[in-house]
Specification:
By secondary structure, the protein is an alpha+beta fold. The chain contains four helices and six strands.
């Protein structure tokens, strides 16, 4: 969750957090509004989980490459206009897979581990994309 130009921007993590704990949402709003500081807590287990997740994703991407899929990686950390534009450009070009796609619609934004091209017509051509979560 973040606030940009007085608009609260949300993502899937915010929705899941809210469904599990409304107090968490209140705290996230306070952090986004900078009325409280984000907790500074380091847990080495989270580093281990993050590393395992990255290895799992990399193994899946290697599997897709071995199957002949050609991928484009959107290699930025934040969801910026440039990252969203790069994702849309890759979709328009008909890339087989788009890795770490940056997506935005109104107040919602997020990253897709993989967008996979499928044979279903869309406004981009004779293809469209499905989100693949590597978790």
């Amino acid at each position: 969750m973040k606030i940009s130009d007085n608009i609260t921007i949300l993502n899937a993590h915010d929705l899941v957090g809210h469904l599990n704990c409304r107090h968490l949402t209140q705290m996230d709003v306070a952090v986004a509004a900078e009325s409280v500081a984000k907790p500074d807590h380091w847990d080495p287990v989270l580093d281990t989980l993050r590393e395992r997740g990255l290895r799992h994703e990399q193994a899946y991407l290697e599997h897709l490459a071995a199957e002949g899929y050609d991928g484009i990686r959107i290699d930025v950390v934040d969801i910026t206009e440039d990252a969203v534009d790069a994702t849309l450009d890759a979709m328009h070009a008909g890339a087989d897979i788009i890795i770490q796609a940056a997506l935005r619609s109104g107040r919602w934004e997020g990253r897709a581990d993989v967008l996979m091209k499928v044979d279903k017509p869309s406004n981009r051509g004779n293809w469209s994309y499905e989100i693949v979560d590597t978790n």
